[in-house]
C-alpha cells in the first residue's frame, strides 16, 4: 500500500482538495441595500400608524357610545324625578291652582307648536342654552363658586317659580352631599332657619299691617261720614222728606 493511500488527509472530497490548493471561490457576503432597508422601515412605520389610528378610532367610538348611553340614562333619571316632583306638587294644589296649571301647560304647548311652524326665532337662544348645559363647569375657588351661585340665583329670580327653585336646591344639595361634612350641613340648616324666621316675621308684619290699614280705613270712613252728616244732614232724613213730597204731589196733582 502506498503512502498516498495511507494519508487520511487526501481522502477528502474534491472541495477540500480545491480548498487546500487555493482553488476554492468564497462566496461574497450579502450586500444590504440601505435604500431598500429604509423603505421597509417606512412601510412598517406606516402600517403601525394605521393600526394605531384604527384602534384609536375604535376606542373613540366606544367612548362616545358609552358617553351617549350615560347621557341617555341621566336623561331618563331626570325625567323620572321631574315627573315625581310634578305629581307631588299637583297633589298639594287646590282645584283653582290645578285649573291654572292646566291652562299654563296648554299655552306652553301652543307656543311650542307655533315655534315648530314658524321656528327660527328662538333657535339661537335654544342652541346657546344647550351648549351652555353641555359645557363642563370648572369651579376652582370662592370666586368661581360665588359668581356661579349669583348667576344662577339671578336666573331663578327672573323666572320667579318657587317650586322650580326649591327643586333646584334639593337636587343640588342631594347631588353634592359627598362633598359636605357635618359642619357644612349644620351651617346650611342655620342659614335656612334664619331665612325661614325672616319669612315668618315678614308674613306676620304684613298681616298686622293689613289689619292696621283696615282699622285706619274704617276710622277714616266713619270720620268722613260724620263730616258729611254735619254738612248735609242725615241722608236717611232727606230720603224721608223726599218720600213725603212724592206722596203730596200724587194727592193734590
Determine the oligomeric state from the structure: single chain
Structural class by sheet pairing and helices: mainly alpha
- Give the averaged pLDDT, no decimals: 75
Strand runs, count: 0
What is the string of helix and strand elements? HHHHHHHHH
Give the % helix: over 70%
Main sheet properties:
none
Shape: elongated
Give the helix tally.
Answer: 9
Strand percent estimate: under 5%
Give the N-to-C terminal Cα separation.
196 Å
Rg (C-alpha, Å): 49 Å
Low-pLDDT segments: 127-134
Question: Can you describe this structure?
Answer:
By secondary structure, the chain is an all-alpha fold. The protein has a domain at 190-253. The protein is 81% helix and 0% strand. The termini are far apart.
Structure in a nutshell:
The protein is mainly α.
Write out key terms for the chains shown.
single chain; 253 residues; mainly alpha
Q: What's the helix and strand layout?
A:
Blueprint: H1 3-6, H2 14-20, H3 34-91, H4 95-117, H5 123-134, H6 142-159, H7 162-175, H8 182-232, H9 235-252
